[in-house]
Amino acid sequence: MHVAALCRSGYYQLRQLRPLVQSTTVEAARTAAAAFISCRLGYCNSLLYGLPDTLLRKLQSVQNATARLITGTRLSDHTSPVFRELHWLPIRERVKFKVACLVRQSLSWQAPLYLADGCRLVSDSTRRSLRSADVSTCVVPPTLSSYGDRTFAAAGPRLWNSLPVQLRNPDITYGLFRQQLKGHLVREAFQRRSMTSDMRRHRKTLTYLLTYLDREKESLFSTYTERMQHETDIKL
Predict the structure, then answer these.
(1) Is residue 172 a part of any domain in this protein?
(2) Cα separation of 46 and 44, whole Å?
(3) CA nearest to 119, candidates 149, 96, 143, 153
(4) pTM of the entire structure?
(5) pLDDT surpassing 70 at residue 193
């Protein structure tokens, strides 16, 4: 329900902004889109972590439509260059960015206690000297369901442990952490999009080859049947 209402609100705002964008500059249109659409997509988006791809794709379509409206990109053009130009993160990476920032604030006790209590380092929870204690690894509690996997106490530490070691360095400032995290997620997002595009292209090629082989198989079977029928007629 939340995703459907968010998409409905986003498309409504896009229809309202369309006449304005046509008579203003790109910077003004970008500011308006950030005020009326991007803020809605970013509000409490950490709750979207772990949602199925079908729901995230609906939100991604709203963000894609917003980017195309701002830059005047055609519907047939790919949105990756547009996102690079606008310095935007896709929906999935925006959610990861918010969760990772909350974990960083929790580890430095700058977040509310109900969040900070769910993030504990391995070095603080054991007396033994472990190698993971040197790279700020969080304790991931066991869960019994997919809903448990989406809770901040489980999803946050798991996401934090998947970040590069240099991002988990407690000595860097929070501002530098956000900057490096965004760069990491940008590379991850466009690498994933590139892999998805390659998979779609290879899928089309494989489909064409399978169709061709099916036709050749039918042709060979038909030729073989005619030949056997001809030999049978000759024997008779």
Answers:
(1) yes
(2) 5
(3) 153
(4) 0.75
(5) no
More confident residue, 187 or 205: 187
Q: Is 224 a member of any domain?
A: no
DSSP string, 14-53: HHHHHHHHTTS-HHHHHHHHIIIIIHHHHTTGGGGTT--H
Orientation angle between helical segments 26-33 and 2-21, nearest 10 degrees: 160
Q: How many domains in the chain?
A: 2
Residue 94: C-alpha distances to residues 62, 98, 184, 223 (Å): 14, 6, 12, 58
Helix (H, G, I), strand (E, B) or coil at 170: coil
Share of the chain above pLDDT 70, in %: 82
Is residue 88 within 8 A of residue 71, CB to CB? The reply is no
What does the alpha-carbon distance between residue 42 and residue 6 come to, in Å, rounded to a whole number? 11
Residues 63 and 103 in one domain: no
At 7 the pLDDT is 92
- Quick check: is 214 in a domain? no
Among residues 36, 59, 88, the one where a domain terminates is: 88
CA–CA dist 35, 55 (Å, integer): 23
pLDDT tens sequence across 95-122: 999 999 999 999 988 888 888 888 888 8
Range of the domain at 19: 2-88
- Tell me the C-alpha distance between 160 and 28, whole Å: 36
Same domain membership, residue 161 and residue 116: yes
Residues 52, 20: one domain? yes
Look at residue 63 and tell me whether its pLDDT is greater than 90: yes
Q: Are residues 70 and 116 in the same domain?
A: no
Instruction: Answer yes or no: are the C-beta atoms of 79 and 73 closer than 8 Å.
Output: yes
Residues 212-221 have a mean pLDDT of 68
